[in-house]
Specification:
Blueprint (H helix, E strand, L loop, with lengths): L1 E6 L7 E3 L4 H9 L8 E4 L5 H12 L2 E6 L2 E6 L6 E2 L1 H4 L9 H8 L1 E5 L12 H9 L3 E5 L2 E5 L9 E3 L8 H12 L4 E5 L5 H12 L3 E3 L5 E5 L8 E3 L4 H13 L5 E3 L7 H9 L3 E5 L2 E5 L8 E4 L10 H9 L4 E6 L7 H8 L3 E5 L2 E5 L8 E3 L3 H13 L3 E5 L2 H4 L5 H7 L3 E6 L4 H10 L1
Parallel strand pairs: 2-15, 3-14, 6-7, 10-11, 18-19, 22-23
Antiparallel strand pairs: 1-23, 1-24, 3-5, 4-5, 7-9, 8-9, 11-13, 12-13, 15-17, 16-17, 19-21, 20-21
Helix pairs in contact: 1-2, 1-7, 4-6, 5-6, 6-7, 8-10, 8-12, 10-11, 10-12, 11-12
The structure holds uridine-diphosphate-2(N-acetylglucosaminyl) butyric acid.
Length: 436
Amino acid sequence: MDAFIIQGGARLSGTIQVSGSKNASLPILAASLMTDQPCVFRKVPELSDTKTQVKILNTLGVETRWEKGAVHTRLRDTDNSTAPYELVKQMRAGVCVLGPLLGARGHATVSLPGGCVIGERPIDLHLRGLEALGAIITLDKGNIHAKAPKGGLRGAEIYLGGTFGSSVLATDNVMCAAVFAKGTTVIECAACEPEVVDLADCLNAMGAKIEGAGSPRITIHGVKRLKGVDWTVIPDRIETATFLIAGALTRSPITVAGGRPDHLIAVLDILKRMGVEVERKGNKMTVVPCERPRATSLTTLPYPAFPTDVQSPILTLMAIAEGSSQVTERIYPDRFMAAAELKRMGANISTSNGQAVIHGVAKLSGAPVMASDLRAGAALTIAALAAEGETRLARVYHIDRGYERFEDRLRKLGARIERVKDTEDPLVIAAAAGQQ
Ligand code: EPU
């Protein structure tokens, strides 16, 4: 298990290139199950999550080759339609093979993803949407079995709103299954996230007939087959936001290149309200830092509102802002794991009932802290860059799930950050003791 050792206080400078989107790549890679022709998916970031997704596809008969940021795929056999627990437990987004498999093969078994540290994360909307297409769903021994009825899936009108609004992967799953359904499907309360649009655009390039992606109503006219595709995934908007916040935190005028400012309007608006301007020139965004950011309040909601995945990073900026900020988390009310660790670095944050109140302090100080999930890990890394002294951040494997070569790219901007083998982590010590 690795840790980061970070010396705070360095000013950053230069340009950092944004990677392809993790959350667009995962369902788009699953589209390789929907054609027997070769596909190329470009700008897929090399992360532990995308590697897990490739392994899941391999078990489902897709041959893959990873070459210079592009994943080449070819469906070779359809003998196995079971996505196993060993892989889905590593990454719950593995569930996004369910819709493609069911649509293309008429049956699928996918291990039921459990909850995770950010919340319970049910999949009722996925199942309800597939059932509306006629699928027969049974849950047995931790697996979801989905089967198309005699005569195949049929188009339907489907309302996909849940207690917390729309669902990204439920929209993806139902949209993929509906591509091969007979007739027309209308999804109401579809997720509007750019990653859903990227998947729909990719499927259309493969021959699907999907209209309205990016709006709450998506219409899918069923087709018989899809062809291969050469597709480039969109830039990662969450990574872009994380780097912009790193610039604001360290008061460094860094440039983030290759992103999509139009996917980040809510984040740019919050930064502006905090006194941090971001100059936009095409796909380049340059942070114009201020001496000390101002406090503000925000609520995380589905796109185009402020994304839950940027909630932990923005907490770090609020932690050193002038005044008191408030964050209401409406997607994952328990997702405040970064707050407890930031407190160890001197932040003044209290959380209860899906809300955080942050009283800004003048400075954070380095401390031993631990990443508990991907976004909390990224937040603690950038907090440490701005803190006084040394931070030891344990369990960076969480960060490796979603940020490509995070420390190398930050180091190129002048950050003092090293990756070390973590011999101090209690889990590592326990494992070593067990081996003796
Ligand atoms: N929900 C339900 N029922 C469902 C599905 C979701 O109630 O059947 C609820 C969830 O519990 C949550 C809300 O709906 O409260 C939204 O969840 P959603 O289904 O949209 O999440 P997801 O599709 O599983 C994706 C991203 C997450 C991101 C969320 C929200 C991928 C692979 N994952 O998850 O990304 O937080 O949308 O934007 O696209 C991350 O990258 O760190 C991450 C967790």
